[in-house]
Amino acid sequence: MAKYEDLVYQLKRQIKSGVWRAGDKLPSLRKQSAHSGLSLMTVLHAYQVLESQGYVVSQARSGYRVTPELKETEPHLHAAVSLTEKVDINDFVFEVLQAGRNPYMVNFGFAYPDPSLYPRQQVNRSLMSAARNLPISSTFDNLPPGNEELRTILAKRYATKGVNISPEEIVITAGALEALNLSLQVCTKPGDWVVVESPTFYGALQSLERLGLKALSVRTDTITGIDLDALEKAFQSHDVKACWLMSNHQNPLGFTLTLEKKQSLNDLLNRYNVALIEDDVYGELYQEGTPVMPVKQFDQIGNVMLCSSFSKSLVSGFRIGWVAAGKRALEMQKLQLMSTLATSAPIQLALTDYLSKCNYETHLKQLRKKLHERKGQMECLLTKYLPSGVNITSQLGGYFIWVELPLGIDAVDVFHAAIKQNISIAPGKMFSVTEHYNHCMRLNASFALNDKTVQAIMTLGQIISECMVANESTILATSV
Ligand SMILES: Cc1ncc(COP(=O)(O)O)c(C=O)c1O
Q: Which residues form the HTH gntR-type domain (predicted)?
């Protein structure tokens, strides 16, 4: 990460968390430079970026101030907790995902990283080796909880990060999604209340819909994440059985909770005896050099079900994930046995082969570097080609960029117009059962920028401008 980006990120965090309030004067360039050890030019560049994104304004001879009329980000304008008795999102999500399934599409709406960033040849070699050497006992050896060697490798990887997880509590699943669904099933029954972030990964909402669960959507800030006061209110007012949350590189917003907040979240869950389903599929995609930790690291009582997979970091199509299920590991195995029976044995063996023979760490380092580079390039192009009035949030790690259009613009209209031009986006409506994010969209920044993708960003800019002109009266009405 460039040094100025780090400062931009820190200052945004401070503004969002109220350290600097609307109208406050930021430290002078000289002071900031002395304090941070950055050069004056780097600090100036960071302030200019914040200005271009609407966070600060510069005033002749008096330096930079936090934009006086800076509105709280949208989530703060919303109710702390929104209740939804019947989640109904799957048809819309299905429609959007289907529309994006076209090989000619510029796939900014895609959920997975560019597959060309994966070590395909090495993984394929491991698959062939596993197929050639498949032991006769492979079916039995790989029944729940899953391949023992694979579980041990995973436990060791966590241990090197300082997270204590035993191979016995890990259950291998078909992608993170099976892990998440089993976790939800193990601690709820139809009609129970479950907390989700607002906005959240649409897969969480689909699971609630499928299992007949009720949603408590808790206010979540673009930069600082879930509002813990609001979460506590939800716990006080409802008999909440589980929370489905992401603490690292959240989808769709991209934030990572601070370590202190992760600890407070864990304490709060324990105080109210609520299970945590921690979705950590982007946990390996941190900014190189700044590893992130799951909430699970603070869990002393086996209450956190930490779910992840190789889908975003190594290979998407193999569908291998896992859950470190803590005290619910045995129940989870029983549930898997009577739903999907087991995870494919050859695929488990192929990944075991890859992880024991190849250098996964080297691959991850390269992947993180590429994703960071591409996200930075895409952010620059979006800043250049999207009309003013659009707010772009790109955070450390992961590969999503969150875009807020002016209130009153429906991103589903943008989606339909863009699809006609073979460009997909993920409209905000996919990520919430409330209407709060209808003017937002999530963009995938993992793909290489070439003439086609740059043109697609320009086209997207035109589409948004046209929508803004067509909805001028609504925009004016909502902004007063
Ligand atoms: C936040 C989040 N969780 C879970 C998943 C599903 O992961 P997997 O493909 O491993 O099932 C996705 C995929 O898009 C995701 O974005």
A: 1-69
